[in-house]
Amino acid sequence: MDWEDLRITLAVARAGSVAAAARQLGVAHTTVYRRLLAFEEASGVRFFARVDGAYVATEAGRELFEMGEQVEQRIVAIERKLSGQDLRLDGEVTVTTVEPLAIELSEHLAAFRRAHPAIRIRLHVTNANVDLARREADIALRATNAPEENLVGRKLTSIAFAVYASKSYARGGKLKIQDADWICFDASLAKTPQARWEAANVPPERIVMSTDSRAVFAEAVATGTGIGVLPCGVAARIPNVMNVTGTLTELTMPLWLLTHPDVAKVPRVRAVLEHLSAAVERERALFEGPPPA
């Protein structure tokens, strides 16, 4: 049995589709489909039933998934241990974070490259909670109240949020919030704190645009499509927007820099951790935003 076939099968079982598994694995969906089909044919067993476009594990698939996860955990543990003994100050380090933080981090990568030209940074941008224990990334920069107990790291600062509008849309501060058009997160982000705040505070009839992209969201606010909630650090970099509510304290989240203990002392990982920590410290005032209204 090829470990890569098993890894792909586990990804499909977790994601529920070939396309979603391919995105998680960073490969073409045709590659996932071809490997899965070949694996089923070679094994003589169907691991999935196709139900309404989704891949649902058969009984054999569920058994394979349970055993496969145990194999995966052992392989990943070996990889982590071996990686933890790597003393080279070169190679690739994968950092995972959400889009607005990735945009801010990218501004600090040039200085890191000058200091560590042999280290390559892979910036994995996603709203999903990437599993560091399975080595899906080396470092996570996360806004969370409850970091995973199996990770190590520290709180760097807090991320503040507020409602922003373009200066032209806000009419010099004369805008009445109750009369404003809103930009909100779409249904794919419904479980995020911001989306829950929007559901509780924004009348549905006032929503003129929804999106799952923070970059598109910020651009729509900046161009006057409507008002919307932005991280204060993101808004501070947009010259023509203004805060129209003061900080929304109920949305303030701690920002954590996290890694797995097995790789925390790897020199290249440690170098990235130290650089990111210093970069966030320099931007602390922007992250934390203005005082609450």
Q: How would you describe this protein?
A:
The chain has 293 residues and is α/β, with parallel strands linked by helices. 42% of the residues lie in helices and 22% in strands. The protein has helices spanning 3-15, 18-25, 29-43, 59-84, 99-106, 109-115, 167-170, 193-201, 214-222, 232-235, 267-282, 284-288; strands spanning 48-51, 54-57, 91-97, 119-125, 139-143, 152-159, 161-166, 182-185, 207-211, 228-231, 241-243, 253-259. The strands form four sheets. A five-stranded mixed sheet has the order 4-3-5-12-6. The longest helix is centred in the first third of the chain and has 26 residues, at 59-84. The chain starts with a helix and ends in a 5-residue tail after the last helix.
Distance between the termini: 61 Å
The CATH superfamily of the largest domain is identified as Periplasmic binding protein-like II
Helix proportion range = 40-55%
Mean pLDDT: 87
- Based on Cα principal axes, name the global outline: globular
Assembly of the depicted chains: single chain
Strand portion, in percent?
15-25%
Could you state the order of secondary-structure elements as H and E? Answer: HHHEEHEHHEEEEHEHEHEHEEHH
Low-confidence stretches: none
Which CATH class of the largest domain applies here? Alpha Beta
Q: What value does the Rg take, in angstroms? A: 22 Å
Can you summarize the main beta sheet? 5 strands, mixed
Strand tally is: 12
Q: Which fold name is given in CATH as the topology of the largest domain?
A: D-Maltodextrin-Binding Protein, domain 2
CATH architecture of the largest domain: 3-Layer(aba) Sandwich
The tally of helices reads: 12
